[in-house]
Amino acid sequence: MGITDKRGLMYRPFQPTFEKGLDTYTECQAAVSGAFNGGLQFYGFYMDNLNVDKMFVLPDGCMNLVICCCRSHPSANICGSLFRGRQGIFVRPECEYFVIRFLPGYAEHFFKYPIGEFSEQEIPVQEIVPHAAVLLERVAEKDSFAERVRAFESFYRDYISGTLEIHKLVKYLTEKIIDGRGASGVSDLSQDTGYSSRYILKVFERYVGTSPKLFSRIVRFQHVLSTLETEHYERTLDRIFDLGYFDQNHFIKEFKEFSFTTPKKYIQQAGTIPGNPRLPSH
Hints:
Layout: H1 16-19, E1 26-28, E2 40-47, E3 56-57, E4 63-68, E5 75-79, E6 86-87, E7 95-102, H2 107-111, E8 122-124, H3 132-140, H4 145-160, H5 168-179, H6 186-193, H7 197-207, H8 212-230, H9 233-237, H10 248-259, H11 263-268
Antiparallel strand pairs: 1-2, 2-7, 3-6, 4-5, 4-7, 5-8
């Protein structure tokens, strides 16, 4: 089978404690600049003292550059792919945040490192990105979300340049997994593309930061989150086989592994993930 560079599917991860818990949350789902090739999403919010210890980040297969826009002392961390939910990565309250989300496979072109090295890590951007101080200054000095998006664009043009590229095989495989809502197995991907399972694992670890199996499970979990937002719990249970789970126990166990709560409790709490002070910070 030939690998084609077809137009990317828009993968839209869901982070409920941000999107439903913060009145200040705003986002730009599509890339503003054609140079980003559909591989970036932007979002922003204001973090106050009340919410700083309540935020819970769920696995979504993406990599994020999280910028605290404090004008006197801006800072930013590169947050790699998560394998389980994490509580609280935002340590500075009373601050506006601007976040660049790199969709699966796109971060390697920007950061110039194998993305697997960032997984489950939070690393100051100055340690990785040349001219990071310029990026922080340009973003932090702006007053609005739209201006910060444009500031990132200007930094990209000046210091990265060119179209945000993605490995063609990774693009094909991630799109296939997303389109299939996480149902594709590694053997299916190998048979479909003609590449060995070992090679597929290698490119996933470099460009996505997870194994293809874990990425498929995360995509399936993200699809379940979206489903629970629009359907009753009982109706979702009736569809667990269509969603790719063996039985109800498999469904509940995997949901809890990623979110530290059960699907039923998630629904009862209006779609917000409860904070848990015993969880490790990211």
